[in-house]
Write a structure and sequence with these properties.
- This is tRNA wybutosine-synthesizing protein 5 isoform X5.
- GO terms for molecular function: tRNA binding.
- InterPro entries: Cupin_8, JmjC_dom.
- It holds the Pfam family Cupin_8.
- With 152 residues, the chain is an alpha+beta fold.
- The protein has two domains: 88 residues, Cupin (Jelly Rolls); 40 residues, no CATH class.
- It starts with a strand and ends in a 6-residue tail after the last helix.
- The strands form three sheets. It has a three-stranded antiparallel β-sheet with strand order 6-1-8, with no helix packed on it. The chain has a three-stranded antiparallel β-sheet with strand order 5-2-7, with no helix packed on it.
- The chain contains two helices and eight strands; from the N terminus they run E-E-E-E-E-E-E-E-H-H.
- A hairpin with a 2-residue loop joins strand 3 and strand 4.
Length: 152
């Protein structure tokens, strides 16, 4: 969900990454495997250096808008209080009714991920060379049908 991060007291450093850089963030579920974004292990995560960082510092009274789908890393630089205000902008039927804090993917995205998991399990029945070929073909199909044609 979209989010306002309101810094009431203290200081925080916030680093944002565009959803378009997801391929460089080494995602496992909704989290990045790269824990130290200031000094990443580039031998283990070589593509991380391609992700574009947007960084800012928040002090008491500052408000930061964090758009839906943007990955963010928040580091408290001193003790403080921050308040997040989230809001839903998709139709209500898109959200899981049990998701109070907006941490779950929209229902359609969750269903698509489950279908993909089943497709990958089915591909696992093929020999490696065939599995590789058909998986690459699926990726191309997804890119062609689902990726935004708009560039930044």
């Amino acid at each position: 969900m979209d989010n306002f991060l309101i810094q009431v007291t203290g200081k925080k450093r916030v680093v944002l990454f565009s959803p378009r850089d997801a391929q460089y963030l080494y995602l496992k579920g909704t989290k990045s495997e790269v824990l130290n974004i200031d000094n990443p292990d580039l031998a283990k995560y070589p593509l991380f250096s391609k992700a574009r960082r947007y960084e800012c510092s928040l002090e008491a009274g500052d408000v930061l808008f964090i758009p839906a789908l943007w990955f963010h890393n928040v580091i408290s630089e001193e003790f403080g209080v921050g308040v997040n205000i989230f809001w839903k902008h998709l139709p209500s039927e898109c959200y899981d009714k049990t998701d109070t804090y907006g941490n779950k993917d929209p229902k359609a995205a969750s269903r698509a991920a489950q279908i993909l998991d089943r497709a990958l399990k089915t591909l696992a029945e093929l020999p490696e060379e065939y599995r590789d070929f058909y998986a690459r073909r699926m990726v191309i199909h997804i890119q062609d049908k689902a990726y935004s044609k708009n560039s930044e």
